[in-house]
Amino acid sequence: MDFRDSPEEAAFRERLRSWLAERAGTFPTSGDDYWRRQGEWHRALHAAGFFGLSWPRAYGGQELPPVYDVILDEELARAGAPPRPSLGYLVQGLGRHGSEELRRRFLPGMINGTERWCQGFSEPGAGSDLAALTTTATRDGDEYVVHGHKIWTSYSDVADWCLLLARTDPDAPRHQGISAFVVSMHQPGIEQRPLKMINGVTTEFGQVLFEGARVPADQMVGAPGEGWRLAMTVVGHEREPSTLGFSARYGKTVRTLAARVEGAPPAELAWAAVQTEMLRLHVRRRLSEQLDGVSHGPEGSLDKLLMTWVEQDVGHAALAMGGTRDPELLSTYLYSRAQSVMGGTSQIQKNIIASRILGLGA
Amino acid sequence: MDARLTTEQRELRAAAARLADELGPGSVLDLDDADRVARLEKAVAATGWRTLRSDGASGVEVALVAEEFARGLVDVPFAGPVLADDLRRDDTAEPWTVAVDGEAADARDARRVLVLQGRRILAGRAGHAVAGVDLTRRNAEVSGPFEPVGEVSAEHAERWRALALVVTCADLLGAARGAHTLACEYAKVREQYGNPIGSYQAVAHLLAEGLALIEGSISVLRHAAWAVDELTPAEAVHAARVAKLYCARAARTVCETSVQVHGGIGNTWECLAHVYLRRVLASTDLFPAGLEEIDLGLS
Ligand SMILES: Cc1cc2nc3c(=O)[nH]c(=O)nc-3n(C[C@H](O)[C@H](O)[C@H](O)COP(=O)(O)OP(=O)(O)OC[C@H]3O[C@@H](n4cnc5c(N)ncnc54)[C@H](O)[C@@H]3O)c2cc1C
């Protein structure tokens, strides 16, 4: 056991730090400005060799051990840079379920940031109960034709591609009739309807209407009916703070708040500092466990719950520091409320923990 | 960067768990079973774990034993003697413990008590037991005359404080795990409305939250225990304070959940849930940490 950097890790950190010293300040870190230039930030990070650290070289990754992501997140936060784009769960979905041909075609662009992606899972009638989804994909020669309504689709307005879940077999039991596709977002059969988020941001997520959108049959990911398994891979990884890279961002918020303290800090802020430090160390432990080949099971739900509590306590600290009078702090607080909904609500995470880890048969 | 336990550390943890499971109290009645306590005392003494520090063990190993002992409600001294050993680093047959705020902590059977005053170590005597919240460990009065028995470096004194916090954190985590397991087992067998109570979300979610709090505690404690010997003394104390604040809140919540999940029985003397809760309250008070001590810049 050693929580310190190994010599290789320290050298990597050093290189990253000096790169960030030049580049970090030039990118916005929040709000609509951040989202607008997020693609550019992604490409800059990747071009310098600081993105996709643990992914295969063949697809544009660096093939480093998973703990390097911790170093990346810590240094980004320390430098006041934007967080790393969180799309590890999509990489996992495509990487594990896609054919080698699909992986070669799509992973490099996803990883290097030249092609942008969104995740079309949720629908108005299918949120927590994702298997209730009704979007259909019907075979028509070499193509499938898609009809349906997706909602809460993050980054849909800038996406080039959508990893879409649709029903291909209406007669199969509901978990088995679903398939996954890579659908182009640039075509006439797609209509985008923006959504304004609770904090006023318009670039976070949107609604996407598929009205006869077409997708080549060879852009189905995995076999027909494998969509549910892919979905479980994706949401499993979407629950991990280590995949999302959020933990250092919370630390940064705490430090920013601490810099404004005059006199005794509010208890909410000190508690947020404790929580943030816990999450930092928790991510390190989880990533270390991956060295033993520990696979991603329902434990991700524990991590998601911890991450949610931390983000929402940081949000409360922002409020305690005068958040209602400061637009940025208020936005931090309001945005934190989404963490217990996105990627599976806290109630759903607790259901998973109770039934699959504790064996409570809930 | 590697937060994993070594094979030896896993083996030590398993050995401590076995001992606690075999000889720790399985019920509130067992607390009064003098034969069992005597056998437990003999077994713990034979392991030599009370002198882990003078045998060169790290904070991580000490924490692992403390955690498993608390999980099994081991009701013979460990924290007190191990902290005394860290100060004295010499192995004598006499049972030692340490004093905090004028009281000998974890002092069952202890005859001699060490007091750390700045860097000076004074030795006094343990007297009558003091009434306390904990049913598994007891404190005692301390009486003089106090004789100086040595001095530690400023650095050692600071690391000792970190170790003391870490040992109490490990105790909190272990007690939380024990209380949580107790509640999960009960939730699987107790039926109401024709179903096990654990099948109701309101109960299941409390227990799910408890497990997340335990996982968070493991992570923050692991680092603090490592830091005792590996970071600067000031960093070690800070890491330990962070861990203490987190583990104390988490453990109390988990124990309260355990009481709640047990219903009426949970509010009786006969249910072990309150024995865990009491141990958690005692370990929170022993070497306490306050939010106002947290350095907001360090995290
Ligand atoms: C910021 C943000 C970004 C998102 N990004 C995406 C994206 O990119 N792609 C995508 O596909 N989706 C995305 N989502 C959607 C998200 O996954 C869903 O909102 C979420 O799964 C909940 O579904 P729902 O909104 O339909 O709520 P519902 O499922 O209707 O839930 C409403 C309430 O009921 C509770 N509830 C529901 N079922 C149960 C149950 N069985 N037991 C106990 N309680 C229950 C929930 O916990 C919740 O509190 C995003 C959401 C947010 C907020």
TrEMBL record, chain A:
Coiled-coil stretches are: none
Residues in domain Acyl-CoA dehydrogenase/oxidase C-terminal? Answer: 226-358
Q: Which cofactor does this sequence's record say it needs?
A: FAD
Look up and give the organism this protein is from.
Thermomonospora echinospora
Q: Which GO terms describe its molecular function?
A: flavin adenine dinucleotide binding; oxidoreductase activity, acting on the CH-CH group of donors
Q: Which domain of life is it from?
A: Bacteria
Query: Where do the Acyl-CoA oxidase/dehydrogenase middle domain residues begin and end?
Result: 118-210
Indicate what this protein is called per its UniProt record. Acyl-CoA dehydrogenase
Q: A Pfam family matched by this chain, by name?
A: Acyl-CoA_dh_N
TrEMBL record, chain B:
> What are its GO biological-process terms?
fatty acid beta-oxidation using acyl-CoA dehydrogenase
One Pfam assignment:
Acyl-CoA_dh_1
Q: Which GO terms describe its cellular component?
A: cytoplasm
| Keywords noted in UniProt | FAD, Flavoprotein, Oxidoreductase
Q: Which SUPFAM superfamilies match?
A: Acyl-CoA dehydrogenase C-terminal domain-like (SSF47203), Acyl-CoA dehydrogenase NM domain-like (SSF56645)
Signal sequence coordinates? none
Q: Where is the Acyl-CoA dehydrogenase/oxidase C-terminal domain?
A: 167-284
Q: Which GO terms describe its molecular function?
A: acyl-CoA dehydrogenase activity
Entry's family note: Belongs to the acyl-CoA dehydrogenase family.
Question: What name does the UniProt record give this protein?
Answer: Acyl-CoA dehydrogenase, C-terminal domain
State the organism named in the record: Thermomonospora echinospora
